[in-house]
Amino acid sequence: MHLRIDHTTTYHYSHPVAYSAQQIRLLPDSFEGQEVLSWRLETDSRHFPEFRDGFGNRTAFLTLDRPHAGLTLRVIGEVETENFHGLVRGLPEPLPPEFFLRPTLRTRPSLALQRLAQQIPQQGGSVERLHRLMNQVRLQVLYETGETHVATTADEALAHGRGVCQDHAHVFIACARLLGFPARYVSGYLWTRCDVHHDASHAWAEAWVPDLGWVGFDPANGVSPTEAYVRLACGLDYAEAAPVRGVRRGGGSEALEVHLQVQQAQHQVAA
Amino acid sequence: MESQVFDEMAGLEEQTRPVYERLKQWLDEMPHDLLTLRRDEAETLFRRIGITFAVYGEGGDPERLIPFDVIPRLLEAREWEYLAAGLEQRVRALNAFLHDLYHDQEILKAGLIPRELLLRNPAYQPEMQGLEVPGAVYSHISGIDMVRVGPDEFYVLEDNVRTPSGVSYMLENREVTMRLFPELFSRYAVEPVDHYCEDLLATLKSVAPRECEGEPTVAVLTPGIHNSAYYEHSFLADQMGVELVEGMDLFVQDRFVYMRTTEGPKRVDVIYRRVDDAFLDPLVFNPNSMLGVPGLMAAYRFGTVTLANAVGTGIADDKAVYIHVPEMIRFYFGEEPRLKNVPTWQCSRASECQYVLDHLEDLVVKEVHGSGGYGMLVGPTSTAQERAEYAKRIQSQPAEFIAQPTLALSTCPTLVAEGVAPRHVDLRPFVLMGESLQVVPGGLTRVALQEGSLVVNSSQGGGTKDTWVLKA
Amino acid sequence: MLSRTADSLYWMARYMERAGNLARILEVSDRMAMSPSPNTDGLPPGNEWQSALITSGTESLFLQKYEAPSAERVLHFLALDEANPSSIRNCLETARRNGRAMRTALTREVWENLNDTWLEIRGFTTQRLVGVELRKFLDWVRERSLQFHGAVTGTMLRDDAYAFTRLGAQIERADNTARILDVKYHILLPDYAPVGGGRDFYQWAAILRAVSAHRSYRFIYRQSYKPWLIADLLMLREEMPRSLVACLGHTCTHLQSLSSRYGQQHECYRLAGQLHASLRFARIDEVFQNGLHEFLTDFISRNMSLNDQIRTDFLM
To answer: What count of Cα atoms within 13 Å lies in the side-chain half-sphere of residue B379?
Structure first.
């Protein structure tokens, strides 16, 4: 599938900001099933040096040291995708899978999470069990926006029974780890047929399956990622894979505006 | 292990050990009143320096001084040679381990250390994975806690490779001893320690980033005036002649770290940071930290700044990792460890845990992630009730505890209310590693001032002594 | 030098200067309150205490807390109140806190002055102040402030640290002199009807005392108090150390030394030069013609802009 992405994030500050620094993880990698044909990041500064963080994510670093009333980040690019049924191969993997057993603030185990994990039968193959887990998460946490926020933990989302893709991913990750599967948080984009869309980026999870490696699971939609998915970054939880993480001096309150289009590119007519 | 307590002056036989003869003679000649007077003078001197100690002690009570014992502790040249060689080997191994862990993880592949122990340990920093640090040095300043139990028997109790403190006491103690007892000092040929700050500065400059042009700019990063080691931070910055900065004095622009000066932004190449990992960069670690510098880790990744010690060194001095240091030495260098570890039982292993529970009154039990002597159980001096309560804690979370035999720490002559009496001591020597490695001849001797006490930590009422390494 | 260090030096000196000035203002109020002549200001009794509040710019904060300015309340508020950021006690504490933050940039004498002063102020209570001990206390504060500046000029290296310390003191001093004049400007105006009684004499003397200039006046003018001469002395006479022109002269000198040290002339240098020139080449009769109050208000706001510019150029 040939996907074209145009994603603009604008921050408006109530007071001018004297200095700001951002880590931007909006730069996809090419790997099996995802070929980045073109990709461009545009910001209010021409300089945003890039590095790979400890997780291997491509990260742009942006600083603005003159007074500014807002900040605009835009990525435009084209990606050729292919359905690998969630298999993730060919990415730089600096960290060993066992590392992803480590619990975090947002994925801390709790009794409720444990109970959910125990509902998954012991028997069956790893992939099968993870699919069951994915479906359980989807049943127990209904998709609803505005019910949770970026700091909501897996335990809170589960108790609340409602949340967005981020919460689904956190609950899935927490339970997968309890079942002994290394699991991680993934941020990215999702193409959908209808125009109605989540207002921001999508998020799902990946779990480590012996013999297969990393396999993607999207508990919000109950499927493994297909050619409709574009993968950006991963981490132990939202904190490390967040598309933008910033710090500013001054600025008062902040208003966020997001424009996102994920479209299937029209096939070029051969000349 | 020796059961009899080894006194470093009296020795195990009847005679005074030769190295202490002159000190003994001097002590015998010295009227007790005069020694007490000198101790009071020392305290006055410290209080005067203590004007700066008191700087951060808000309110009416100035910061408590750590008691200083005026009688120096002596180490012979050959003893020191042995220790120094062992310390060098150990610190090199810890650095080799850190480099390996944050790169190819050969030691994990070899199965020598349980993977989970390292990878799930909060002190393991994924942000360091694959990051190149100049000279592959991670712990530029290390403090290795040693204990002695016999004439030729030393053990490593603990490694400190995060931000070890105490070196200012080592330097101030020497300063004060030389002023109070010039006549005793002249009876011995003592290795100097006062070049420490110069060596520290040279060490830091030697690991400047590749991109640094000209003379590297070094700064000491402190959490600020309220930190209990603030005095040491300002002391070291002052002695090295570099700026003492706080997080807000630094900022990252493009790929570089700058400090805000009255002449405009000035690039900083090497940061001797005394701020914990978790607070260094709100973009990567604790997002609410006001002590750090946003983007510092990005600059670290770009290789435009060196942090000393490196981020993520805490994994090497974790108490659960400690037991594997001898393995590291064998694995990386093919050498036998020169310094011994204290035998350690891991409560995470069921059989060892049972042994620990059965022998609580003979053991010292510590929390794996604890430090500063807090939360430990000293078996022989504990009550049955304390042991029972502690046993419950161990049983509920066995992996959180390790146990060691109660070592008969050596004693040194110490001035106490009743006169001069033996008190238990330990030793924290400091090792600097940059392009080259130096073991500072001396260190911080900590002394348990209570009779019979084995707890030397200053937070638990311990004192310090000047440590004299004698020239060959 | 770190900007934060320079900032701390600057505010350390400003607050020590402010503490001394507050002590002078309180002393004058105390004198006036005891003066025998009837009130001619048209203000109710106790207005001397109110004018202390106005001069120190704390009247509105005071009124949030108390109803009427009585002697005891104002004394407590301006001298020891921890809730008033500009009380003498808090000035001394803020000065010390700034000094402590860059202890190693200070000489021992400067630090000990700050530290001892702060330790001692905590022993004073309002009860002790209302009564015989007030003058002793105010003398003590004034002395500590002078001693501080003495320690600075007597022991500090003449480098940029010194320049920033002195800048803080001069900017604060100019602000203080201008405020004292502005609060009392009406009694200096030519159309102010002098009733010839003792009250005017006391009022004029009070202004001079508030800037420790009552003896200097006699030396310079060798005649009885004339309101325009008082204004001249406090604004335009270079030899009077707390006059506006003298403070600005010093400010320019210190900014000049920073320029040559750093090899760069900043915007604040230009602002200070401009302000200095407007004082150096002013004549007192012209100032009166154009309005004393307007002149002073303008000066206070330009002095404040200069402070902001120094901050932008060096301290952040």
So the answer is: 18
